[in-house]
Amino acid sequence: MKNIIDLAWLVPLFPLIGFLVNGLFRRQLTKPLTAIVGSGTVLASFVVSVLIFFAVKNGQTGTVTLFPFIQISDLSVPFAFQIDQLSSLFLLIITGVGFLIHVYSAAYMNSEEPPHYARYFSYLNLFVFSMLLLVMGANFVILFIGWEGVGLCSYLLIGYWFRNTEYNNAAKKAFIMNRIGDVAFLLAIFWMIHKLGTVTFATPDQTGVFDLVASKLTATDITGITLLLFIGATGKSAQIPLYTWLPDAMAGPTPVSALIHAATMVTAGIYMIARSNILYTLAPVTQGIIAIIGLATAILAATIALKQNDIKKVLAYSTVSQLGYMFLGLGVGAFTGAVFHVMTHAFFKALLFLGAGSVIHAMHHEQDIRRMGGLKRYLPVTHLTFLLACIAIAGIPPFSGFFSKDEILAAAYAKNPVYYWLGAATALLTAFYMFRLYATTFLGSFRGTEEQRHHLHESPALMTIPLIVLAILSVAGGWVGIPEVLMPDAHALEKFLAPIFAASSARTTPHAIPHSTEYLLMSITVVGAAIAIFVATARYRRKPELHEATGFGKILANKWYVDELYNFIIVRPLNWLSRFLANFIERDVIDWLVNGMGKAVQYTSRQVRLLQSGQVGSYVLLMVLSILILVAVQFFVKK
Amino acid sequence: MNIEHYIVLSVALFCIGIVGVLTRRNAIIIFMCIELMLNAANLLLVAFSKMHYAAAAGQPATAGIDGQLFVFFIMVVAAAEVSVGLAIIVMMYRNVHSVDVNFLNRLKH
Fold first, then answer.
1. Does A582 contact chain B (CB < 8 Å)?
2. What pLDDT does residue B109 have?
3. Beta-carbon pairs below 8 A across chains A and B
4. Whether A330 and A467 share a structural domain
5. Do residue A621 and residue B22 have CB atoms under 8 angstroms apart?
6. Which CATH architecture has domain B3-101?
7. Of the candidates A557, A586, A608, which is a domain's last residue?
8. Chain B within 8 Å of A623 (Cβ-Cβ)?
9. Across the interface, which of A614, A615, A620 has its CB nearest the CB of B21?
10. Are both A130 and A241 inside the same structural domain?
11. Does any CB of chain B come closer than 8 Å to the CB of residue A616?
């Protein structure tokens, strides 16, 4: 094989085939066959991705142009894939974690009827296809196609159990909120086309947006474009103000939450901003906004997670919070740190969701942690892997979460110590709510019904093996990014990604913080997290919160009433406006106009009809008079 | 003889025809008035044709006869029309015993 990069088109092709086969033959295929097609295609993609990754690691990068996609005068948008360090890393995460989740789904969804089982797998394959398109696209338009594709699959999968109205509403909410962000994204693309005439990312053989940005765009343009792109990212990656769809998205099957709403789709915004890092480096205003919004989201979501009692809701808010972290990293210029956190977060959050799925499976679709407890004894594998993931997300060394979180926090400190302190507080909250969840679910005594206790069982191997693989990754995944201070020259990821962020790092002077300070920062977060873990575990293993929260806790349990606020300031005025348009504009103006037109014609017809008297004499008289008038007109008004 | 005489005569005939159609109610008289108007036009055609021929000395012999030929056609068509029209009037008289046009003012039943 002369060049493995040229085979990049195979990566998205396999899941597309899987989607078509499972989608078209869903009534013919048996369930095992469906699962094999669904997971096998993703596995094939994963194999190709691994080959590509190692080719990239050896220095092969490039674009694969398949065919011209849009050609309008000067604008040319090819259907091309860009294979470089960033996309190959994302390919590995998406196909690797994606494959594990497909395998897990095969067992988790086993109680579904065959056509629905195949429908589920076809959606999942379509999602992987779209996500691959998103990260492989060599220009903003292909990226946008993938962007919309994952939004669609997210909608389809949240509403997978479409007979439940509430789930459908959650799906619609996710779709509409994403659409708000997508409009901004689209505007940013139009802006780039208008100003630059191209949407291609920079490649060695083609000048693209990132080459022209410094020379052709004014500061206003760059700020506008970056802000619009960021609004797109807030929709997809669930940031303030568009984050409320993600917790509701937990209506979908649990593996879907793991794949789409934790590991891959919601990180699309971070991928997009990391990809356009040069734009953001040149727009410090936007960077500041991103950092603040990211931090605010991280804190807000972490406080909400403290009081949630639905196992998936806690994880959902945790995801929102961690995404906020990643945006903080992007905002302070730690692009590598943000991508690093995407990677480690994909491992441990997918593991947490799959572990939650295993618990829900064992408890017969019970999601309320107040009715769990003491599951450690019944689900040993799930318990152990869940615990490892909790430690990883809490940021205890040497688990993966520690390294990525530390990198972001160190960069935040270098930018502004306030960012660091707020970020560290969030890390503390994270450790606390994760171990509240862990202790309430797995420790203490069982609080479910006798029937549930009777049915408690460890999940089948198809579900536990992905858990174990992800647990290993959650523990060891951080070792590719050990900070300089702990081990010189050990940050493999930073070196690997350096070409992507080269243009940005050339324009920024890194704020080196002294090693002693860095040790101090690290120990503050680690000790804080350790104390939070201890307190949470000690408190909730003995006395879990079984009653409805009161006082301030009630505000948190009700998610700061943000949904109610949106309802009040957006949904209700919109409803009122719609009612006004329907009842007044529609009925009293438009209908009046249309009916009035008809009535006017009828009225005039009735009047004019009287001329047709049947009197031959009057007809002739009118004829003669008309001719006389015509003659007169011809005679006097001529010319 | 000047063309004006012909014009004045034919306009007079035409006006008599119009006034007759407008004022009379007897179908046969209206019919006669229509014929009068038709023939006023015929007269004008013949007159113009004749004058044109006289003015165009040295032209081929057929130069001025177009209008006169036209008149023959009109007469033939008018004859056909008269036969149809009179037939209608006869049928009308048979049905309602009157030839008053105002009597049949509705084409409805």
1. no
2. 44
3. 19
4. yes
5. yes
6. Orthogonal Bundle (1.10)
7. A557
8. no
9. A620
10. no
11. yes
- Where helices occur in A481-615 by DSSP H, the ranges are 492-497, 502-507, 515-542, 552-557, 562-566, 572-580, 591-609
Q: Is the pLDDT of residue A317 over 60?
A: yes
Structure-block tokens of residue A599: 């009535």
pLDDT tens column, A459-507: 888 899 999 999 999 999 888 888 877 877 778 888 888 888 888 888 8
In chain A, whose CA is at the least distance from the CA of B30? A617
Are A499 and A408 part of one and the same domain?
yes
Q: Is the pLDDT of residue A205 over 70?
A: no
Tell me if A614 is assigned to some domain.
Answer: yes
Mapping DSSP onto H, E and C, the string for A190-225 reads HHHHHHHCCCECCECCECCHHHHHHHHCCHHHHHHH
Domain ranges of chain B: 3-101
Q: What is the pLDDT of residues A231-259, one digit of tens each?
A: 999 999 999 889 999 999 998 999 999 99
Q: Global pTM?
A: 0.81
CB-CB under 8 Å, A620 with B102: no
Q: Least CA distance to B25: which residue of chain A?
A: A617
- Residues in chain A with CB shorter than 8 Å from the CB of B101 are 616-617
Of B22, B30, B105, the CB nearest to A613: B105
Q: What is the model's pLDDT at position B55?
A: 64
Residue A467 φ/ψ, nearest 5 degrees: -60, -45
Q: What is the mean pLDDT of residues A130-150?
A: 93
User: Does a structural domain hold residue A144?
Assistant: no
Same domain flag for A542 and A573: no
Tell whether A5 is covered by a domain: yes
**Alpha-carbon span A291 to A64, nearest angstrom:** 34
Q: How confident is the model at residue A215 (pLDDT cuts 50, 70, 90)?
A: confident
* Residue B53, pLDDT above cutoff 80: no
Return the residue of A nearest to B23 by Cα: A617
Q: What is the span of the domain harbouring residue A50?
A: 1-138
Asked if residue A150 is part of any domain, the answer here is no
Residue in B21, B25, B107 closest to A614 by CB: B107
Q: Which residues of B touch A615 (CB under 8 A)?
A: 102, 105
**pLDDT at position A1:** 44
Same domain flag for A571 and A548: no
Q: Count Cβ atoms within 10 A of the Cβ of residue A524 and give its class: 0-12 exposed, 13-18 middle, 19 or more buried.
A: middle
Mutate to test the interface with B, among A611, A613, A620, A626 (most CBs of B within 10 A): A620
A415-440: pLDDT as tens digits = 889 999 999 999 999 999 999 999 99
**Residues from chain B contacting residue A621 (CB–CB below 8 Å):** 22
Same domain for A76 and A168? no
How confident is residue A169, by pLDDT bands cut at 50, 70 and 90?
very high
Nearest CA in chain A to B101: A616
Classify residue A444 as left (phi > 0), alpha (psi -120 to 50) or beta.
left
> Which pLDDT score is estimated for B59?
64
Give the C-alpha separation, A261 to A254, whole Å.
10
Of A522, A557, A592, which residue is a domain's last?
Answer: A557
DSSP conformational letter for A571:
I
Q: How many domains does chain A have?
A: 3
Contacts of A22 (CB under 8 A, 6+ apart): A29, A34, A37, A38, A118, A119, A121, A122, A125
